[in-house]
């Protein structure tokens, strides 16, 4: 590859592009124009990295951090970046979402064949609260770009229905009186759960190695589900421990069950294998929620 660079002594900036071309053809002007057309945004192309990036500033809802009004330029713009790839193109992006937009937009991404790879906050004391959802995917521009457009359409649909971000899920608060029957949930989840004052919690351990020794359930390498409320009107919250290869199937299964995802991130470093964790929240009949969680557990390797 250095031999190629010798043929372009007066164009040092061309070398990164040559690397991209050597790995796979760079995005063509036609592909870049098609990305703009399909996403509805005017992108910018960086030749040195072979990246065409489209952005969607969030100027529709005022956001303040510590009481200070924030401009979209300060980190409040959704974006998707496209580059050439072995199947036509790769896309990576970061969606700036309010809490009531996250799960509808996530479902659009997953149903469209994109991966959701992280979900977290970037700020403290932001009003309203802003979440950031990272996406990725591989395929043709014709397949990837329309999914990005549908995600942004879903954002607009949510905001058209409710201009101000919601303060809670539509179901409202679960009953304060806890009366969860443990036996049925034990049967569905296939574990012996714990009970406390009418609440129920199941914990399923997994294993990893860190710093030369095994760590497992009691060190936090686990999936758990905690239920409150009543059998007919329950809440469930919890945490899923997943290998990277398991994340997308678990996400899709939980969303199909109507369970909301509230965070996706790491809990550890240097563990082998690496685990990703997601936090979730659901409302409904306790048995139905447990079946959704059981279905997600069944997608995992062990």
Shape: globular
Strand ordering within the main sheet: 1-2-5-6-9-7
Instruction: Tell me the β content.
Output: 25-35%
- How far apart lie the N and C ends? 44 Å
Helix content: 25-40%
> Using only CA atoms, what is the Rg?
22 Å
How many helices? The count is 8
Round the mean pLDDT to the nearest integer and report it.
93
- Structural class computed from helices and strand pairing: alpha+beta
- Number of self-contained structural domains: 2
Order of helices and strands: HHHEEEEEEHEEEHHEEEEEEHEEH
Task: Report the count of strand segments.
Answer: 17
Detailed description of the structure:
The structure is a single chain. By secondary structure, this protein is α+β, with helices and mostly antiparallel strands. The protein folds into two domains: 2-161, no CATH class; 182-298, Alpha-Beta Plaits, CATH 3.30.70. Helices cover 30% and strands 34% of the residues. The chain has eight helices and 17 strands. The longest helix has 21 residues, at 141-161. The chain is globular and about 60 Å long. It starts with a helix and ends with a helix.
Question: What descriptive keywords fit this protein?
Answer:
alpha+beta; globular; disordered N terminus; 6-stranded antiparallel beta sheet; 8 helices; 2 domains; single chain; 302 residues; Alpha-Beta Plaits
What is the topology?
Blueprint: H1 2-6, H2 14-23, H3 29-39, E1 44-46, E2 51-57, E3 64-65, E4 68-69, E5 77-85, E6 88-98, H4 99-111, E7 115-120, E8 126-127, E9 130-139, H5 141-161, H6 182-189, E10 194-196, E11 199-205, E12 208-210, E13 213-215, E14 222-229, E15 234-243, H7 247-256, E16 260-265, E17 275-284, H8 286-298
Antiparallel strand pairs: 1-2, 2-5, 3-4, 3-8, 5-6, 6-9, 7-9, 10-11, 11-14, 12-13, 14-15, 15-17, 16-17
